[in-house]
Amino acid sequence: MNVEQVLISTRVAKAGMTVRELFDECDRANTPGLPFCDVSGRIIGRVTLKNVLKHGCLPDYVVETAHILGEQFSNLQDIQAEVELLLNNTVDQYKQEPHLSITPTSSAVKALAMMEREDTSYIFVVDEGRYKGTVTIHHLASMLARCGDPLT
Fold this sequence. Notes:
The protein is an alpha+beta fold.
């Protein structure tokens, strides 16, 4: 099985895309992030849900003290106000380095091995410099569960 059989087509993030649009697209496609592309479509980075939420919703002191926070800890009013602002921000400020990628004809085993080596659960699929979609460990496992065929 090659990754082309399980890739999920998604939009790409570009300068000016809002965080709300990122969240909506990642939710629709069940992916943890999107490639960030320049105007020519070349991948120049990535934007992930984890990075946006970490930097947009969690003050450092909350992260540093998470292990001692009580179960009832809530700053809901503060978080709701922050989230409203966050959703209207552009994703530009959350752009990270480009993520690993493979070609559409790469095997599922290669995708899994690369994800394991880089300790990630997704990989971008790129063909001749153009983004084709994303493959996640969840999508690979789901396909295997449905078909029952060994990885090839």
